[in-house]
Amino acid sequence: MPAQNQPARPANPVLPGFHPDPSICRVGDDYYLACSSFEYFPGVPLFHSRDLVHWRQIGNALDRPEQLRLPASMPSSGGIYAPTLRHHDGRFWLIVTNCSEGGGNLIVTATDPAGPWSDPIPAPGVPGIDPDLAWDEDGTCWCTVAGVAQVRLDPSTGQTHGTPHKLWSGAPGAKAPEAPHLYRIGDYWYLLIAEGGTERGHGVSIARGRTPAGPFEPCPANPILTHRGTDHPVQNTGHADLVQGPDGSWWMVFLGVRPRGGTPGWHVLGRETFLAPVTWEDGWPVVGEVTLDLSAFPWPLSPAPAEERRDDFELSELGPTWISVRDRPAELCTTKERPGWLTLRARGGSLDEPDVVFTGRRQQHLTCRARTLVDPEQGRGGLAVRLDERHHYAIEASGTDVRVIARVGSLRTVVAEHSVPAGPLVLALTITDPPPPHGPCTGPDTFSLGIEQPDGIFTALATLDGRYLSTEVAGGFTGRVIGMYAAEGTVHFDWFDYEPLAP
User: Catalytic site residue 178?
Assistant: First the structure.
């Protein structure tokens, strides 16, 4: 039986794949969560859940060109950083940083988190990144940012009042105090932050005070969450947010990674969203064990409908899981030109270019298979796994041949070429565990890229090491995205199929 037809066990991460910097809020029985999106359009994916374990994407907060401009001059891993999502006075509020030229901190609002969201309200007086919103009892809104500094803010206008003032910088000597979130819980205001950088030293610390402006005393048990120096399969744990469960218990969502292979360990899916229980002792939160198996959960789970792994491009618009690099002009990416097909029209010459016409979905499983039926008669394009402009693998078709291309840093190589008859053909890639023997230099996974014959037989043209499409090699803040692109002319795609082979 294919893997996608088997019932999924509730498991961490609750949002696998490139879903970093989670921010969560509860409204009645419903939970909503937002993540960073960096150089991809649309920006800030939004999810809904009833049980904190099963999540369904309901939209993207920044899904119109007038909301999100990401210029080609902006490097990969720039763009949209660390949103905070809150519900106040009958509305959803989302504040986020656009780290590109002319960007800055901005606020959007909605009555329905599925959208539409408002045009952005600039907040030029809010400094830095990772902005948070919190309202006190008299309705004053406090915006706290990485650093960790705070300023009063009118979120309806973006106007700040007074000058930002420092609150707390976390543990002495710890780098990168960031991702602040401020909460009123019981008699105290709690200030939750990430520190130590978003690599292996990442952690979560907390302080408390009697007023939202402090002064704050640090928790004596800080950091309250970190896996630094451990052999836990989830590493880089940090950038957290707190929420109450349906039974009144407390929980934490946070980002982490799953390194694989030998030394130093390579994570390839990006920073993912995990869930852990929280208890309270002496007025301080205590984070419980981070377990991969969530089947023994304290309340009944509400699985979402199974995600469709295949898209036949029969709708007039792409679904919310599809993302593109920096923008998605309708004249270059459409399902309306050739009914039942996705049409991509080339702009940049290849995946090496920042303005490449590419549309893909996040890789969410450690092993998986992706396939697409492409008609390259009027151009050249294909199927790719992208980390950034300098790190990607692709199998590319023209009218008479296919070739496998590997870009690793400054090196770009045509690894294999193969003649094919004219007409549509199926391109495929499979990501699997590396073959034995395994040792200190073993990579995280192995790619096979090739073509699928009409009888369904896969012919691999090249096998490549997955470590070169990892954050430890490429750097940055994102994860792998698998999708289709056009490098020349016009390329049509009849369908795209993504099949997980294992969690």
Answer: yes
User: Residue 152, Cβ neighbours under 10 Å: how many?
Assistant: 18
Cross-strand bridge partners of residue 92? 87, 110
Active-site residue flag, 314: no
Question: Where do the DSSP E strands lie in 301-400?
Answer: 310-311, 323-325, 333-334, 342-345, 357-362, 367-375, 379-388, 391-397
C-alpha 303/C-alpha 498 separation (Å) is: 20
Give the pLDDT band of residue 9 (cuts 50, 70, 90).
confident
Omega cis (within 30) before 437: yes
The dihedrals phi and psi of 270, each to the nearest 5 degrees, come to 85, -170
pTM for the full predicted model: 0.96
Q: Report which of 30, 47, 98, 64 is spatially closest to residue 272, judged by C-alpha positions.
A: 47
Q: 323-346 pLDDT, tens per residue? A: 999 999 999 999 999 999 999 999
What is residue 8's predicted lDDT score, i.e. its pLDDT? 67
| Residue of 51, 63, 178, 389 marked catalytic | 178
Contact 135, 120 (CB under 8 A): no
Adjacent-strand bridge partners of 407: 392, 412
Give backbone dihedrals phi and psi of 471, rounded to 5 degrees, phi first.
-65, -35
